[in-house]
Each structure stands twice: as structure tokens, then as C-alpha cells.
Amino acid sequence: MKQVLQHRIDSTFAHYDVNRNGVIELADVYALADRLLRAFGEPASSERGRELVEAYDRFWEMLVEHCDADRDGRIGPAEYRDAMIEAVVDNGPFGTDFLEIVQSLLDIADTNGDGRVDATEFQVLLKARGLSEAECGLAFAHLDTDGDGAISVQEYVAAVRDYYTNPAEDTPGSWLYPKALECTGLSH
Ligand SMILES: [Ca+2]
Ligand SMILES: [Ca+2]
Ligand SMILES: [Ca+2]
Questions:
Q1: Is the distance from CB of 164 to CB of 173 less than 8 angstroms?
Q2: Residue 138 CA to ligand 3 centre (angstroms)
Q3: I want to staple 136 with a disulfide (CB 3.0 to 4.6 A). Which of 53, 108, 123, 125 is the partner?
């Protein structure tokens, strides 16, 4: 069971290490932000664009605080894995900083501004992450646990926790990342 979860942690590491140089740095986090900006068709200079970049700045600060033990601005796979196991698997609740980041992300995803992130809006988020169209539909169906046709902060955070703590197939969390990514994680 632990092995599946370690593999998932390694999979997200591979996802975050956009430039594939073996460490997560600010450049990778900005590359992820850029990918999303392009998916939403937003320039970085628009209000929404600035909010997104700020959310990713806060995400980077959170990563540094939790993972970058030697504070050199580079997070290696071992630092990342140890921190994730401690933060998510062993300790449970995410801090409010993480909730705020997710809230910003969902605000940005809510492109029609009706206060809800529906299937079409959520799909943009997941497509930018590399999920196929079919996977996006399945992910939405699994993450919308109260069935109201929208993804709430609570539903998203529950899925993230689920991803790192529940190795079972077909849980909401198992749909957060492309299925293919789970096969290409770093080897131990
Ligand atoms: Ca990198
Ligand atoms: Ca909406
Ligand atoms: Ca819902």
C-alpha cells in the first residue's frame, strides 16, 4: 500500500518537474502557471492572469516551506517525497495556505463567474494537466461527490488528500492526474 502512495508522490514530482532536470524550482512552477494561462487563453498581465501567477507564487512558497529543507531553491525527489509523506500521509489536514491556493485556482477556472466550477470549466484545468478528454469527464464525475454539477474547494481538497492516502483504484483522488503519469514516475 505504501508503495502505491510513494509512486503517486513520485508521479506528481515528475509532473511538477516540467523541465525534467531532476529538481523542482520556481521555473517549473512558472511553467505550470504558463500552461494554465494558455489553457484559459489569459495573458499573464490580465487581472485573472495575475491572480493565477500569484496563486502559483504562493504554491511555490508553500513547497519551499515544507519541502526545501536546505533552502537552496531546489527541491529534489527525496526532499519532496519525505515532506509529502509527512505533510499529507502522516499528518492529515492541509494548512489554510493550501486551501487558499485551491480557492484561487477554482476562482480562475470559473470563467463565466457564476461562482461554480462546472464540468466544462473543470475540464480546462485538467486538460492543462495532461488528462485526455475522456479522463476529464471521468475525473469530474468522480470528484463531484455531492453530485451538484460543480467542483467545490472541499471536493477538490478531499480528492488531493485521497490521491496521496488511498491507494485504491477509482477513488476521486485516483482521477486527479493522467493515468499514464502513474506509469512514468521516477524509479526508486
Ligand atoms: Ca526542474
Ligand atoms: Ca462557472
Ligand atoms: Ca460538487
A1: yes
A2: 14
A3: 123
For residue 76, the CA-to-ligand 2 centroid distance in Å is: 37
> How many angstroms does the Cα of residue 5 sit away from the middle of ligand 2?
32
C-alpha 61/C-alpha 166 separation (Å) is 26
Euclidean distance between CA atoms 2 and 66, whole angstroms: 21
pLDDT for 39-83, tens place per residue? 989 899 999 899 999 999 999 998 998 899 889 999 999 999 988
C-alpha span between 82 and 137 (Å, rounded): 32
Q: Tell whether the torsion through CA atoms of 150, 153, 157 and 162 is positive or negative.
A: negative
Distance from the CA of 74 to the center of ligand 3, in angstroms? Answer: 36
Angle at 40 between CA 159 and CA 132, to 5 degrees: 55
Share of the chain above pLDDT 90, in %: 60
Q: For 90-124, what is each residue's pLDDT tens digit?
A: 665 567 778 888 998 999 899 999 999 999 999 99
Pick the CATH number of 2-184 from 1.10.600.10, 1.10.238.10, 1.20.210.10, 1.10.1200.10: 1.10.238.10
